[in-house]
Amino acid sequence: MDLQVAIDRVTLDRAVALARQLDEQVDIIELGTSLIKDYGLEQIHAQLPKLRHAKLLLDLKTIDEGEYEFDKGFAVGDILTVMGAASPDTLTSVYELTQARSKQMFIDMMEITDAKTAQIVDHPDAIYGIHHAKDSRAGFDAAATVADFHAKYPAVKHISVAGGIDLAMAQKLATQGITESVIVGSAIVKTADPVAAAQKFMEVMH
Amino acid sequence: MDLQVAIDRVTLDRAVALARQLDEQVDIIELGTSLIKDYGLEQIHAQLPKLRHAKLLLDLKTIDEGEYEFDKGFAVGDILTVMGAASPDTLTSVYELTQARSKQMFIDMMEITDAKTAQIVDHPDAIYGIHHAKDSRAGFDAAATVADFHAKYPAVKHISVAGGIDLAMAQKLATQGITESVIVGSAIVKTADPVAAAQKFMEVMH
């Protein structure tokens, strides 16, 4: 199981410093939507050094104009996110573009109905990302949600999960064996020693 | 009926030049999602002069982390967009923030079900924006769609519509009298003389 660390709501300088520190420690470094909307892809591209070990995921949250956004995004990152709430035409066009570039696409499954989910689980190489809205006031059990999703959509090969994942939940998900990547934000980046925190997650997950 | 001109998929310099030219001609100037994701709010804020006449709408397409994005966005613009596909909690929190700041919120109704629509038409001061995905391969009749929406949700006071609006459709929408603002993109900004094109739209609409 891969560890994805989410960097968000910090200055670009801080994000670059965290990405450098964590590059050798984790599998995927995510730059959050706030960094893209606050600073823009051009500045991120100019200031972020090429990662040596981790893949770079940009949380674009594309919901329309898929080809334009993915074309710009793949000049910077390896994995881009698109909303499952986008139109099926948007999802199809970004999937085709992603396959043509040999890159990866991450579908954010937040706030979509079962009917819509059933319509869009037909992209075999896409990563399906399960989480609640950060704004949601409801609770979230990552392992139970992943198990439920897997039972309903057994054809989906690549599942990612996020949402208040702590060491105990990361270990539980690793043991469960369904999830391909787990996303951890503040439990790593908001600690006094993000490298040590990331190493602890890697230990319990492997 | 107000004219909103959408500026998108151009360089920031070009966007700033267009905004200056069109400020006195139109009611609302929209800076599209591509400008925000390519250049970031900080650069837009630094380079765009304060508009003298038109309101500035930023097409943030917020779908999560509503308070963070709206707080940042209102430092730059007068009207911000949020996706109807966001969680009801996100919509409620950005509505509250918008009301507290005496600003405006635009809910992008793209790709949501009737059931979800019924859940979120309870924000009386919000603008409800109707359009198809730009990536959609289906046709779109703006006047018929607006009439249908108004019949289903008569309590909604502020309706905006976009999608291939030409002069004839703008005139039809003005006569129909339901729509509060109409969004025009390439039919103004991709012409040789955007000011003259905007003036023609204003003439047929008033």
From TrEMBL, chains A, B:
Print the keywords alphabetically: Lyase
The alphabetized list of GO BP terms reads: 'de novo' pyrimidine nucleobase biosynthetic process; L-ascorbic acid catabolic process
Any one GO molecular-function label of the UniProt entry:
orotidine-5'-phosphate decarboxylase activity
Q: Which InterPro entries match?
A: Aldolase_TIM, OMPdeCOase_dom, RibuloseP-bd_barrel
Keyword Amino-acid biosynthesis: yes or no? no
Q: Which residues form the Orotidine 5'-phosphate decarboxylase domain?
A: 2-201
Q: Does the keyword Lyase apply?
A: yes
Fetch the Pfam families from UniProt: OMPdecase
The record's SMART domains line, in alphabetical order, gives:
OMPdecase (SM00934)
Q: What is this protein called?
A: 3-hexulose-6-phosphate synthase
What is the organism of origin for this protein? Levilactobacillus suantsaiihabitans
